Amino acid sequence: MSSRAQGFLVESPLINEDTAPSSFPKEKDRTLRKSPTFRVLGGGAMALGLVAVGTTIATASGGTEISPVSSGGADTAATADDQLTALQRDLGLTSEEATRLLDTQAEARKLDSELRTKLGDDFGGSRFDIDSGELTVAVTDKAAVDTVEKAGATPQVVTYGMSGLEKIVDDLNEERVSLSDGVTGWYPSATDDAVVVTVLKGRKAAAEKLIAGAGVQADAVTVEETTDKPRTYADSFGGDAYIINGSGRCSIGFAVEGGFATAGHCGAKGTPVAAQSGGGTGTVAESYFPGRDMGYVATDANWTPTGFVNDYNGGAVSVAGSQEAPSGSSVCRSGSTTGWHCGTIGAKNQTVVYPEGQVAGLTQTDVCAEPGDSGGSWISADQAQGVTSGGSGDCTSGGVTFFQPLNPILREWNLTLSTS
Questions:
Q1: pLDDT tens across 334-350, in order?
Q2: Cα 130 to Cα 87: distance, rounded to the nearest angstrom
Q3: Among 12, 181, 265, 327, which one carries the catalytic annotation?
Q4: 93 phi and psi, to 5 degrees?
Q5: pTM surpassing 0.85?
Q6: For residues 44 and 133, what is the distance between their CA atoms, to the nearest angstrom?
Q7: Is 374 a known active-site residue?
Q8: Which of 35, 374, 392, 418 is catalytic?
Q9: Beta carbons within 10 angstroms of residue 246's beta carbon
Q10: Residue 226 Cα distances to 4, 61, 293, 403, angstroms
């Protein structure tokens, strides 16, 4: 019986560091550093959920099982330490600061969810400040300021808000552009209360044409130049993963009842897949790419889904749910090439222009990744966030990585996330 962990990470297209999309948007301007302000925040019980991939183990009968490490005792303590170590390494925090961050962030995530519901149409977006532990909630109606303040968050009155900006994004998505046009993507910026369109250097006219063609308000859009050109690619090389159509390599995102969620570019509907051990097989049951980057693989009985992910340090960590974390929150990614890395969530609902076409609805982060990490699990504390779609840079020099949010995948095909 093999005990080697296989990553639940699809080898989705990653963007080459020399041809990546524009630099991380203004949501990422915050330098990742140890913060004196954050050190004085009150502590509490540490959130134990870790970002990782589901581990698969070849069973004696030849099948493939997603097998968790024990959820109690020394194993739980070890995986908690692993998460703290990753946060300290990638965010420049002390052990105490990392522990407080997880606890404070869990409270902010809960508060964010409550205010989204309570404010309804007045909710204009939110962002979490990793240095101060403060949650800022934008509102489109001054009358909602009191509600935000009483809840314990900082209000910001805006004109458009995320709902207004997302309508502009939808209008831009209706336009068809290519990299040859000079436009590399667009996203709504909660910080600027505007939609940011990124273009190749010297090609602002392409953005102006896009904006005019979509018929959106020019004063609600800003244009930023970049020298980077996004493109997607997938490599076929060894590692802990599953095999696509007998040759390509991908990894699982999150286990769901009957299979697993993953990135859509890993295979069109009907594509056969198999566990790297050869014990389990499956078929891509649903897939969208481009447009969105979401997929669902239906597996046979030799694959048993469980609510755990691989921490790439000999253990596995539990998944408790899929509550969305606000921008600015810390997030961790597990990948079969580079293992486990952490960073922060930046712009949401970003559209990226790949050579294959536009992909909308992605979330941008400052977490590094490399080819083979694509499609992997993203978690903030113990809450599943998404699967890797693409990125730039590497885990030596750093980079930017996008993920396809998980909840739209679950809703699209009525899937049930496996939790522990």
A1: 877 788 889 999 999 99
A2: 12
A3: 265
A4: -105, 160
A5: no
A6: 13
A7: yes
A8: 374
A9: 8
A10: 42, 53, 24, 21
